[in-house]
């Protein structure tokens, strides 16, 4: 399939950004991908991704070892630079698999891409320059409506690769808060053990006993996440196989958003003001409000929604099957179209407490 060529020549740096990045806008397809990266390599990739623009008009990022340590809250030292250098080499050596599901057969397809096409390390200055591969970047660009905002220091607070993977997968489902029977600040996702093995890059010979797999891949990483107090708590529950009640069919991960210790002032429940991040993004409250407006528009104009959805699906026909991520992206795209065409069915703009949302590009 033909891919759009993106411009790798423009190099995005801390200087052009104007500040050390605090967040990475990570596409949910990346969070839910199949990969065998170490924790250090995942952190390096997240740092590079935090510097490239959301529209991927350029895909080269340059930063220093000191920038990396500051953004992720990591202590600097001679040994840490050696690990940093090895992580960059690993990023060039490993691939990432993007999942898609055929709606008719329910069979999964994993398309594998190289993370980065080039990388350069200047040991004297500590400057690293990395360019995302065109194939992966173009795939992400086609699905850029569905992403999660992840605090880089949350990545830096976690040490094990399994904890990092569970954390980013959990965050990728955060948009399900308050939907489908979930409480306002709760959501969940469910995966089979074979799925988790593939996503985490764990061979069948390792942790062959289910209890060993659960301890090392599920329980200990969840404890690490919960003890880190990074805004989310996770609890895992075994779901029995419907065909064999003695076996585990899947594992359900119940997630809950929690207030971070630094988000409240002493003796009061008021949140601290956040520093400006690298991008002007909607707050979680406003993101939820926008989603509610979209849902109202879809419900009010179902025939127009179906018409626009079919047109959008035809544009996306080059993707492998119709997967969950693509359908979510199309729903957001078409929902914004409806808001632009008809407005919010239930609220007039003059009474809209979030009226700046009306100016958001759709």
* Distinct helical segment count: 13
Arithmetic mean of pLDDT? 80
Uncertain spans:
1-6, 269-281, 316-322, 348-362
CATH class of the largest domain: Mainly Alpha
Shape: globular
Please indicate the count of domains: 3
Helical percentage:
40-55%
Strand order of the largest sheet: 1-4-8-7
**Portion in strands:** 15-25%
What's the main sheet like? 4 strands, mixed
In the CATH hierarchy, the architecture of the largest domain is Orthogonal Bundle
Distance between the termini: 27 Å
Based on DSSP secondary structure assignment, what is the total number of beta strands? 12
Radius of gyration: 21 Å
Can you tell me the CATH topology of the largest domain? Arc Repressor Mutant, subunit A
What is the fourth-level CATH superfamily of the largest domain?
Winged helix-like DNA-binding domain superfamily/Winged helix DNA-binding domain
H/E series, N to C? EHEHEHEHHEEEEHEHHEHHEEHHH
Class from secondary-structure proportions: alpha+beta
